[in-house]
Amino acid sequence: MSRRGEEDNISGADEVMEEPEEQEDGYTSSTPTSTLTWISWFCSLPGHEYFCEVTEDFIEDDFNLTGLNSMVPFWKEAMEMVLDVEPDEDAAKIPDVSIVESSAEMLYGLVHQRYILGRAGQQSMAEKYESGIFGSCPRVYCIGCNVVPCGRSDIPGVDTVKLFCPNCNDIFVPPSSRFQGVDGAFFGTTFAHLFFQNYRESAPAPFWKPPPSGGASLSPRSASGNRGSPFVNPNPYGGQKRAAGYVYVPRIYGFKVSERAKCGPRMQWLRLRPESPEQLDQVDWRGRWIDEDEYEDDEDEQDRQMEDFDPDAGDDDDDDEGDEEEEEEDAPSGQQHGQRRTDGISAVAHAVRTLPSGTRQDMPVMISLPPATGGKVKLVRQWTTVQPPALTGAA
Amino acid sequence: MSRRIVEEISTGSDSDYSRWISWFLSSKGNEYFCEVDEDFILDRFNLTGLNNEVANYAQALDLITDQLDDEVQEELRGSLDAQARLLYGLIHARWIVTARGLAKMVEKYKRGDFGRCPRVLCQSQSLLPVGLVDIPYEKSVKLYCGRCEDLYSPKSSRHGSIDGAYFGTTFPHLLFLVYPTLIPPKTGPPVDGPAGSNTSASDSKSRRRSAREELPDVTGTESLGEGISTASVALKAERYRPRIYGFQVHETAKLQRWQEAMRDRQVGKLEELEARGG
């Protein structure tokens, strides 16, 4: 007790000395090795639960360390510490052990980032994942989906470690503050996603079909799907498990908050899943709907602004412009006509939309939109030939 | 039992812990609750139907309002405490959707009493408690983030065991309906932010604003939010893009494109509605 009081000034080193002894007792009981390696000790420290143990032959292979010696100060001493090699005689020139310790931590972290991308590393991380060491997603409707550690940068010193949830494809702050000191670069940006490419059965499918019973969808447990029926991935080559796809619907006194309210839902798209690959294919590589002219006017304007520099902007656009010019010739006040035309469209759009608006925020309806808009597009096309009053009367 | 705890706490602090509500609010794990005004509890109309939900209703009510006779048997006291908690929770769920209750919860929200969003890109947005059902003993309390509009489980287990019915399904959404100025921005650091960031700059202005927010009538705050348009806020929302060696993962990227196309469709629709309305 008195000894500890005297050595307060080097308490950091003191802790380091004591911890391995404490850990050793527990360690020797499970494994035949009598001495604790630096790596095992490091991985057993509080806050280092996410690390797996890198094998020594991986670190000893110089190829795996390419480029790291320029990032880690006191490279040789750090290597000796990590690999438990007895230091040379001239090691006395290092002023403080704690400097080498932080170098060793940096070295181990950066090697760890590379190691967990390899087969052995992925496997040992998979074991940790299966046992739930990384924790689970805090999002209620991910229903405790296990998460994996993830960095936001591959360069050390940028940000601390985060947790990636494969169900909502989002990253979260670890729940405990003891992970605030762990660098995200020690896990890297790639690991989490490579992991779910390798272990496909651990990743939730990007598709989700709401269970047939609509009323029970309020509770997250029933939202996880009826366990009785086996999950059939809409993508036969996907290999993923059933997703937890329910998206929260805000309600006031039991009524869904309309998206037309200022405080209405704006972010449901972030967690939305299509029912089938066909729905995914309705969006092209630029993120636009294929075969949908719902917002034709707006998009044409955007096209002209954005694609002016593009010599082959597309023949369709040219045709549209030609049509508009003809209309302007017909009507003496082209501007007004255009304005009234969009009004007419939105009136039709409103008439079409008000029908399912009650169930609008429910996903099945939202997803089954494309056929409905197809019907509406016909109405819009009709309009250009029919007189405006006739249409507003019909709508 | 409760009396003993009251005495223990009152020695450490000089607040008025002789009142049951004050004791309840100050005990560990009850940080999410706000104080229900006594005249709200005493108005029997506000308690309609609760006598069917709570056993020993009359005595539990007496305990909450500190009118319980000292002669009540010791064996009853233990169970009465649980009943009083249930009753207070159910009254609380009704109270926080009134104008005065909302104003009290707004203060707690601004202080960050309900915690911060664990989503990295929400940048520690302040959360609001919400229930998944309005019936007690069904689901524990969850936390609603106004930025990502999603639900999260409380970090601490002592909050995770609170009944969600004590806050109700309506509360956070009614709060943003009544206080549209408090709807968090989808990008940048949160406005309510870490304490003291915006209070020093415009002290008189913020005081005036908070004074207006405390007004019981809703009309004053509604006119404040008249100019806000939230039709296209979703376009500003940041999202995480999974990458392998810097390249986006095909399947996820495709899903995200689809989700963003769904978002764009909603934004287009809302902008069209807004243009017609205004």
From TrEMBL, chain A:
Ranges of compositional bias, category Acidic residues: 15-25, 291-331
InterPro entries attached to this UniProt entry: Casein_kin_II_reg-sub_N, Casein_kinase_II_beta-like, Casein_kinase_II_reg-sub
GO molecular function, one term: kinase activity
Keywords: Kinase, Transferase
Region ranges (Disordered): 1-32, 210-236, 283-348
Keyword Kinase found: yes
Signal peptide residue numbers: none
Functional note: Regulatory subunit of casein kinase II/CK2. As part of the kinase complex regulates the basal catalytic activity of the alpha subunit a constitutively active serine/threonine-protein kinase that phosphorylates a large number of substrates containing acidic residues C-terminal to the phosphorylated serine or threonine.
Quaternary context: Tetramer of two alpha and two beta subunits.
Family statement: Belongs to the casein kinase 2 subunit beta family.
Protein name (database record): Casein kinase II subunit beta
Organism: Mycena pura
Automatic annotation (TrEMBL), chain B:
Family under the similarity heading: Belongs to the casein kinase 2 subunit beta family.
Record-linked InterPro entries: Casein_kin_II_reg-sub_N, Casein_kinase_II_beta-like, Casein_kinase_II_reg-sub
Protein name per its UniProtKB record: Casein kinase II subunit beta
GO BP: regulation of transcription by RNA polymerase III
Subunit structure: Tetramer of two alpha and two beta subunits.
Region (Disordered): 187-224
GO cellular component annotations of the record: cytoplasm; protein kinase CK2 complex; UTP-C complex
Function: Regulatory subunit of casein kinase II/CK2. As part of the kinase complex regulates the basal catalytic activity of the alpha subunit a constitutively active serine/threonine-protein kinase that phosphorylates a large number of substrates containing acidic residues C-terminal to the phosphorylated serine or threonine.
Pfam families in the cross-refs: CK_II_beta
Source organism, top-level taxon: Eukaryota
GO molecular-function terms, A-Z: protein kinase regulator activity
